Amino acid sequence: MSLDQAAGGFEIRMESLARSFDLHARTAMFSRWVIETERFGLVVRGIVWGTVGVVAMGVAAGMVARALDLQGALTLVASNPLRVPIAGTATVGLVAYAVWGYARAIFDPLGRGHHMNGLLARLGFLWSAVSYSALSFFAAQLALGGMTRAGGTLPFGLEQIIHRLGPATVVAAGILVAFTGLGQLMDSWRAPFRDDVRLRFSHPRIWAGWLWLGRFGTFSRGVVFTGIGAATILAGLRGDTHWAFGIAEFFSFVIGLPAGAYLIAVVACGFVALGLHSVLAAPWMRMRPTNLGPNMVPQEVQ
Description:
By secondary structure, the protein is mainly alpha-helical. Helix content is about 70%, strand content about 0%. The protein has helices at about 5-30, 30-60, 70-75, 85-105, 115-145, 160-165, 165-190, 205-235, 245-255, 260-280.
């Protein structure tokens, strides 16, 4: 056997191994029990965002002193004698939603594609997966009684790393968050999620309501992220490397502005809409790729 023949045989074996690995990975990722658990994760995510919105409404009405971020919402929901089962259930749901984020980023079941906008969307799914992985870790610590408050506005200690790297890194982080917020504002108009659920033709009125909930929720989240990014940029330009500005801090700042309570009320309603959008998507979300083929995971009925 010549060297070229040996190299060709090795390449064929590697391609076969890669296809086999891809087959097993997809089969595991899109198995029925994984998908059903991810649907539950959509419900848990919706409850968390809805809780943030409801508390923010209380801030706007002057009934609550301080708004909450996602970690604060988890702490509030679990602050009762049933803390362990509630926080444990939330952990399962958040882990499942994080897995769904990794699946969206890697296997692209929603068909975002490989063009620039699609790749940016999938990068956003990856960041979402990392963020919800950190949130699930917080929920697990909450269930075990090891943590009662948030440790930072960024996942896995990234906030402390950015602070140590200096003001320029803080500015760069602010720019990234601000661009994320602007992207959310654009998505609220473009609605790239319009075909993510199997409702458009079977239940057009429900689909239209779900679509506008998503648009409103995405717009509100875009407003908050853009504000957080702008505040972070200003902090970096001032040389303040210990600035921590998240959702709760955004609401605390806005409430002091003229007509700030009205802005908070609108954004809070948007967060509730975002929560409802996530919960309503759970039973109808398209969670399997449509191009898997007959020998892999069965295609989902459209």
